[in-house]
Amino acid sequence: LLWDYLWTGLTVVRARLWMAFGDQEAIGELRSQLEPYADRLVVGGMSAMFLGSVHHTVGELALAIGDRDAAVRHLEAAVATHSRLGFAPMVSASETALGRCRTTGAKTTL
User: What is the pTM of this model?
Assistant: First the structure.
């Protein structure tokens, strides 16, 4: 994937697809690629796409590979970012994912 202004958004979309496929290797690789950008928002195509905080997706990836501690940290950061910016639907999505961290046998849903 070309590293340009669309990279973050398209990589988050790829992450969501690979989580749905359940490919643990791809999930781990995408998590490593996105983690350095966790403090950013996912905006692509000159704002044609908004997917919230990268922390949310990194948290979902961590949960998908069973790293619940990292998932909680990233999802709590996503809730804080979304709350601070007033993105109520994204707050709800991050809180829902955070709830899955506390549920035995949690499954990532997109």
Answer: 0.86
